[in-house]
């Protein structure tokens, strides 16, 4: 694909979004939550862990721990027992308790709704902060996880590998009103079609809009 201008890339990304909306009409964040604190906890637990495993344990956790203080004041040994089915449960216990203590100390126990404030929480980087802003606070934001990064690179929407630089590239071309949905669509597409090793290019709804040079061929 010839080098595109910013306007051409914006036009192409709008077409990509429209196609993926038709392909994945139910696309959404696959972590279950009912408030910003629950989403923060779920995101910490989901690091290098499948969303369905997190969703399997969070209903009981969220009934038991309803405030930042509940999480912060629990004995680590109790959380270890409750989180044992999750990868790196000891590290995640520490991360949850550090973050919730910071919420109590700085924000009255509430998850803040500004990027700069979220980034002051221990263990919260731009990806987590942007997913929180987009899904818990309905603000335009692009959280770059491995799926968003991979699909964006293959579609030629960014040349970067650093998530912050990918976010900056995407923010320039994805309409604000579509940014949260864009992330959901790319996550679903990256899990179902544009998978890491061998993407299913013959069944890709945006194949003709994609310059990826290593496309898989349809089986004869």
Could you describe the 3D structure shown?
The protein has two domains: 91 residues, Orthogonal Bundle (Endonuclease Iii, domain 2); 101 residues, Hypothetical protein, domain 2 (Endonuclease III, domain 1), CATH 1.10.340. Helices cover 56% and strands 0% of the residues. It contains eleven helices and no strands. The protein is elongated. The mean pLDDT is 96.
Secondary-structure element pattern, one letter each: HHHHHHHHHHH
CATH class of the largest domain reads Mainly Alpha
Portion in beta strands: under 5%
CATH topology of the largest domain: Endonuclease III, domain 1
CATH architecture of the largest domain: Orthogonal Bundle
CATH superfamily of the largest domain: Hypothetical protein, domain 2
- Fraction in helix: 55-70%
Unreliable segments of 5+ consecutive residues: none
**Average pLDDT taken over every residue:** 96
* Structural domain tally: 2
Rg calculated over all Cα atoms: 19 Å
- What is the SS-derived class? mainly alpha
What distance separates the N and C termini?
A: 26 Å
Topology:
Layout: H1 6-23, H2 36-46, H3 51-64, H4 68-72, H5 76-83, H6 89-107, H7 115-118, H8 126-136, H9 146-154, H10 163-173, H11 179-192
Short description:
By secondary structure, the chain is mostly helical. The chain has eleven helices and no strands.
Feature tags:
220 residues, 2 domains, elongated
